[in-house]
Amino acid sequence: MRYTIAMACVLSLFWLLNSGHYNAAMLGMGACSVLLVTWIVHRMQALDHESTPAHLVLRLPRYLGWLALQVLASNLDIVRRVWRRETDIDPVVARLPLPQSSDLGRVIYANSINLTPGTLTIDMGEDYLLVHALSGDLCDALATDEMSARVSELER
Fold this sequence. Notes:
By secondary structure, this protein is mostly helical. The protein folds into 2 domains: 2-44; 59-155, no CATH class. Helices cover 60% and strands 12% of the residues. A 3-stranded antiparallel sheet has the order 1-3-2. Strand 2 (119-124) and strand 3 (128-133) form a beta hairpin. The longest helix is centred in the middle third of the chain and has 24 residues, at 60-83. The model has no long low-confidence stretch (mean pLDDT 87).
């Protein structure tokens, strides 16, 4: 039941932030919409700790801040590589271990790699990720496991 309530709260907040209208009729329609969607999802039994990750709410902002800094640093690195006279781009494909225990942790890790410029997750197996990078340096940075450790810390 707590996942149902968490989802209803998130939907209500999302609706309020995107609507911008706060008169009685609009608030009533928004409440009806949220209740209808919540009822449908509850009847489908589609709510669990992975579909509504309320347990991540307190740790997620810190991780997203760190990821934003990584994305910014990678952007600057890619710009530097492109603007140099001698190209420092040597594409590689590497197989990285995937130590995350939950599907949610695996998806967060793979998507974090995709969000970081210069790297792309090509394939995901039970215990590995196949990653394409614009250079071996970028693959080596991923192999240090800092991102993986932070995702593992996030999902605990």
